[in-house]
Amino acid sequence: HTHRSHVVASSPNRGRFTDVLPPTEPARELMDVQQARTIGACTVRGAISTLHEGSPFTAPVDFVLNDKGEPVFILKDGSLTHTNIASAPTASMLLADEASGHCLTLMGSVGPLPEQEFAESHVDFLNVHPIARECIAAGG
Question: Of 9, 27, 42, 114, which sees the most CB atoms within 10 A?
Answer without folding.
Answer: 9
